[in-house]
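To whoever is covering the structure queue this week,

Two jobs came back overnight. Logging them here so there's a record in the thread.

Job A:
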Amino acid sequence: MSTQDSSSERIALLQGTLDLLILRTLIFGKQHGQGIARTIQQTSDDALLVDHGSLYPALQRLEAKRWIQAEWGVSENNRKARFYELTALGREHLVRETNQWRRLVEAVGLILGPEKSEG
């Protein structure tokens, strides 16, 4: 993940977060690397920007763990690209990780407490 000057506050991701976001993106079907990065950026309202230096090692890591599989195909701009797809094992991992993240978010929210209005 990287930051970009055009946005005043990009969000730094915790270790392992990119893997989870990639898996979540692939739940909707096959995508090539650039499509995955674009979906994460658009879905996060441009708060998250995935650079190639982070994306492709993450895709290789996920493929090595058999959470995704890849095959060659042709992209929408008629170029050869690898298309990644979530496996059954990846779907199971996604469910577990999503539940853990939701518990984490809830716990951190409890510690931070409600937002106080400035007075």
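Job B:
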Amino acid sequence: MFQLDDKFLQDVGLGDLPAEQKQAFLDHFREQLELRVGTRLSEGLSDAQLEQFESFIDRNPEKVSAWVTANVPNYAEDSIYQQLKSGAPADVPELVILSEYASLKWLGLNRPDYRDVVARTMEELKTEIIANRDAILGSN
């Protein structure tokens, strides 16, 4: 996967942003990426599918539990779940981990191209940044 960090800023030519602007720019980039990816992934999905996925995002305990029980009852043995759990801070509630796991499994079933969509969208945004870096840096 990708990291939105100082290396990313260097890669797109924004390594010279003032320190106080770096995190704000990364936050804005992450929001744009999530918005565009979400829009593209929702294309072609039914209202019921979108509602189901939203229940994972909203961390609805009943709906998350019901979906996991019906679709991946042995989730605790899944390496993806184990990786999410071991990578989470100790104080993260189980529902957060289970919701993240359910959303990944759901995407794998309903939008198996989601990784490609994320990668393409990331590259498009990077290209836009590179094309506009002088304006972003205020040096045009």
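Note for Job B: The longest helix spans residues 19-42.

Please reply-all if you pick these up so we don't duplicate work.
Q.
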